[in-house]
Amino acid sequence: MPNETSISFAQTKVQPPRFRAGLVERSGLEERLGAALLSRRLVLLIAAAGYGKTVALSRQLLNLPPGCATAWITADEQDDLPRLLACLTEALEAHDPPWRVATQSLVEQVSKARELHAVVAELTNAFAAMPVDHGVIAFDDMHLVADPRVFEFLQLLIERAPTNWSFAIASRIAPPLSLARLRVHHELAEFGASDLSFSLQEIRSLCNAAGQHHDDQSAESLLERTQGWVAGLCLTLDVLSRAGTPTAGRRLSQRHQFDYLASEVFGSMSESWRDFLMRCSVLPELTATRCARVSGNANSARMLEEIEQRGMFVSVLDGEELTLRMHDLFRDFLDDRLRREHAEEIPELLQRAAQDEPDPMRKTDMLLRAGAWREAEELLCEVAPILLAQGDSGRIAGLMERFPADARARSPRLAYVRGVVAWSEIDIASTKHMGEAAAGFEREGDLRRMRRALAHQAHANATLRPHVATSEAIAAALDHEDADPDLETELAKASHLHWRAVLNGPQSAVHQHLARLTELLESGAPPALWFSFFPWVHFHFGIPGARALAMRLVSGALAAAGDGYFPLQLQARSAEAYLFFWQGRVDEAQERIRQLQLDEQWAGRPAQSRFGSWSLLGVAGMVTGDRTVLQDSRGKSTEFFRRLTTLEYGTMGVTGITLCNMEMVAGALAGLTQHPNLSFSYWGIFPALFEARLALHDQRDEDALALLRECVKTSSDRDRFGFDALVRVFLAIAEMRTGSATAAWRAVEPLVGKIRSSGEVLGVLFCGPAALAELARFPWPGEVPREGLAELQHWAQRSQALQVGAHPAEATTPAAALDAPLSAREFEVLMHIAAGDSNKLIARALDLSPHTVKRHVARILDRLDLASRGEAAAWYHRRLAKGSSG
């Protein structure tokens, strides 16, 4: 399975090449290019292959003065805008940009064709906040990029970047950018073939460096023959060093490059060398391991060392083993020869190359070029769940686009991928796609994967379409028992049964299936499966034993997520906040919500996390009476309410009860009773409660009493979202109002015992301070235990104390002592920033990951309304000095 660091692109794309020592210094070109990189907004190096664009640009970046930041991106044919943006943000990481959002969320935004201006604004703000004298971002081989959005993005970025940042583009053709304004304002520097060609003096120096001491006439002959074309000069000198005399011929022009390579280089090689180079030309980078696999040559390591020593049209990349990148001119030539001489081998060579390729985009292209459709589809099935768990669904769309339209329409594997993507977005289309996948797998005779897809479909149906009857095929798949169970299928089955139990009860079944789901996840599920099947724990409070299982799920998810699966972290943190709410630890829950909102902002607000956070906001608003928070919650929940209308009406009704807003309760009752599929929803038990609450409000106490007495018969076993507590509290009120204090205590007594033993008080808090105060004020008879009455008093006092403005917040952290809205950990990070430590040093000092440090830096800047690490350090020193003087 691909690892976290290589899932988006090969790291070699952001490594500037290095060249062997002894290259001829070109002081004139280097002086002009260096000055341009420091003074012009855009520097273009436009020339045909072999003119030394990459060498000139990479060498000059190394010669920039101290205080300059540089980033290098080598483009390739697979680059679309999201992939190139991912490369750009990774290339900048060495300089600790103060990102305000996760770079992955920026990639996700452009993947989904969202507004480019917002992404460009994030980048330019980061550029402006970096403490560098000057920055240069270099893009090499940009002629390979076909996505027009890349150049639309670059146009905006170049126009809006701070003035101390420059951009360099090396390409065989002029990029489709609007250059007129840059030219008019003298912000553009252009270097063409004439600028990059070697002069007579440089040819003499090149000959001397190569050990070929030619007289002036010979140097002039070389200039005439090659027109200063760098590749041609190197080829000629290489031939001279080995054969003594180059083949006589016409002047070397671009249209004769391949002929020249064939006669002067390729023709003089041994057959084993020719075969090795031709076959290895399918590789984007050359290592001994990969070359040996592709070429079958056991001497690959020795041959690569010789290639590097001779500088045979390669650059060297940093890595644990010798890694070379062929010059694209040479690769094009070798590819042409391979197609002429061994075309029948190309599919097999590409498949061999794909075996060790870590970059899924490149690997997919290799397999598709080889005609290995099935293997390419299998690869996408493998990486799609990982990308989803890493918050990178946009990359999946880019990979899907690589397949022909008919394959996208017919393939069950691609239908499966669409299904898991839709599920991650809580989209009902997941059921349709999984049904298509199951039908396709059945046609192929792959019954194991058919059952997996049907189990996924059952899970999605139970969650999003509970009114849909289970088909015979799904029922058979759920009943089937494999001798060698598939973990993903078993998880989908367990999730389906768990959610059916949530809908229909009883409580024991909910606990049973939640326990089974927890055990399966803990049995070694990878992060992608944790992400797909992490349950929505907010519907489980009041279920005996559910809290202990939820705590295990939170711990397991966080352990599985590590630093590379941020959306899974958000799911777990959302569940953790609910656990605090269950016990009435509202202050701690609200702090978790604040952290979660910042984390969501950092991560680009993934769909499943938003589902958790808006419901958390709703709970916080309900128990504190904060109508501003409730309004914010309902505004953020619109997209989910469109899909899950019972959820909208159910939460509206409970909110109305908590706030004593009978208009909301009446609206929820009308909405639920008119819903066509209410009997299939866990909200189906709530209309009677809402009707009873309206009756109590209208002082129709006998009507309310009849409804609530019926509800209480099953409320404990069907307890969802505080139903049992709501029923028992209002039944006690109805009984007391109608004159039966003893019956009132019988109604509420089981609730008192349950909450005293579990500590899960959230359902009671949903009753609202007014109802709880009324309950506590009743003239209870003497036979009611004193501890029971104290519990009722505690509920009322606790609910009232939680209301907005009931008590001031207290400073409990060092940050609070300095009047800063930071957590203790954020304050620690701020101290290290003020000391001038980099993210890596902070991570090492605090035993955190660099990813976590970046999130803390973003939160600090957001909470203090600062733009850069420098401003944060200055803020800290000012406040520290102020505190000391006070």
Structural classification: mainly alpha
How many helical elements? 48
What's the mean pLDDT score?
83
- Low-confidence residue ranges: 1-6, 243-255, 809-813
Terminal-residue CA separation: 58 Å
Shape: elongated
Biggest sheet strand order reads: 2-3-4-1-5
The number of E-state strands comes to: 7
Radius of gyration, rounded?
Answer: 34 Å
Question: Biggest β-sheet: count, sense, barrel?
Answer: 5 strands, parallel
Please bin the fraction of helical residues: 55-70%
Strand content: under 5%
Give your account of this protein's structure.
This protein is mainly alpha-helical. Helices cover 64% and strands 4% of the residues. It is built from 48 helices and 7 strands. A 5-stranded parallel β-sheet has the order 2-3-4-1-5, with helices on both faces. Strands 6-7 form a two-stranded antiparallel ribbon. α39 runs antiparallel to α40 and α39 crosses α42. It is elongated and about 120 Å long. The N terminus is likely disordered.
